[in-house]
Amino acid sequence: MNQTIFLLVGAGILALGITAGMMVMRRKLGSEVSRLESRLRDMQRHEDENRTLLTEAQAESQNLSSFLVMLPDLARQLNSHLDRRNIAQLLANALEHIFDPSRILIYFSRHEEKQLYLAYKKGVSETVPLGLKVGYNEGMTGWIAESRQVMDKDDFHGQSTGLRRGARIGGRVNEEQLGLDLLAPMSYEDECLGVICIGGSARKPSDQKRMIKLVSDLGSLALYNNLLYTSFQAMANSDALTKMYTKRYLLVRLGSEIHRAEKANQPLSVFMFDIDHFKKYNDAHGHLAGDDLLRMLSKTVRHELREDDVAARYGGEEFVVLLPGIRKAEALTIAEKIRRTIEMTRFPNAGTQPLGKVTISGGVSTLGEDAKTSSELLKAADDALYESKQRGRNLVLPHRIRYLSDEEEEEVREADPVA
After folding, report:
1. Alpha-carbon 148 to chain mean position
2. How many Å from the N-terminal Cα to the C-terminal Cα in the chain?
3. Is 152 helix (H, G, I), strand (E, B) or coil?
4. What span, in angstroms and rounded, lies between the C-alpha atoms of 406 and 413?
5. What is the Cα–Cα distance from 356 to 362, expressed in whole angstroms?
6. Which of the 8 DSSP states describes residue 235?
C-alpha cells in the first residue's frame, strides 16, 4: 500500500516536472518564434527596400543610358542652332529627359549690364514674364550667376550666402515661392552666360548636381558659340553710327523670321518709328549733334529690347524693331515703353524741339493679323506710323484695317470740323 502511494506520488511529481518543463520550453520556443518572426519581417522589409532601390537604380540607369544615347545629337543640335531661342528649348528638353521637373527657368545673361533675363519658363505663373531682368547677386539666381556654383536649396539654407528669405527678383517676383530645388550656372572662363533653375523634379538622380552641371556645360558651349557668331554678324551687318542692324540685314532677317513664325505657328510683330522733327534738330544744331542724338537714342532703344529682338536703322532717322514671338497687344506695350523712355530721357538740346523734348512716333503691325508678307508687314507698320504723325506725334498706334466707313467719317470731319 505504501509502495503504491509512493509510486503515485512519484508519478505525480514526474508529471508536474514534465508539465513545468514543457511550459518552460514553450515559453522559450514562443520567444524564439517571435524573434524569428520579427527577423523575418525585417528581412522582408529590407528585401522590399532593396527591390525598390534596385528598381530605382534600374530606372535611373535606363534614364541615364537613354540620355547618353541622345547626348551626341543634343550637342550637335545645340551647336548648329545659333539662335538663342532654340538653345533654351533644347536645354529644357534635356532637363525634362533627366529630371522631369514641373518647373523650369532658363536665364541668359546680358554680360555688359551684369544682368540676366528670363529666356524660357515652364510651370510658373504669368506674374513671372519672359524677359524678366535679374541682377547679379539678386536672389538665388543672381547669386549663382555671381558665384558660378551648382547649388540646391539645402545648400542655400546651410550656407551663409547673405540672401534674405522672401527676397524679390526683378523687383517684383518672390523667388522663394517659385519652389526651385536645383540651380546651375552656364559660364565660360570667368564670364556667366546664363543660369538654369529647376523645381518639383519627378526624377532625382543620385548625382543630380553632376547631371545638371552636364546640361549647363552644354549650354555654356552653345551660348559661347552664339556670342561669337552674333559678334561677327553684328560687325558685318551693323550700321556704323547707331550700331543697329542695317536695312539690308533687316529685310533678310524679316523673311527668315516670317518663315520661322509660320512653321512654328508663333506670332511676330514689327515696330516702326522715327524721331519727331529730326530735320529741325539737325538744322538748329548741326549734323554732328544730329549724329550724337541718333547714337544716344539707338543705345536707349537697344537697352529696352530682349536679346532675340532685332533693331535696325531703316533709313535716316527711321528705325524698325522685329519682335519674334510677340502678339500685337504685347508689342504695343513694348513700343509704348520705348516711346515713354525716349520722351523722359534728357537728350542734348531737347528743349529746343517743337514738343519741348525729343520724341518718337511709331506704328505696330503683326503677322497674320495685318499682313502675310514682309513688304505688307512693313507697310502696315508704316501706315500706323503715318497715322501717329497725323494725330500730333509722340504717339504709338497699332495698324488697323481701314474700311470705306472710316474714310467717309474722315471726310465728314474734314468737311465739318465741329463734328
Report:
1. 18
2. 146
3. strand
4. 11
5. 19
6. H
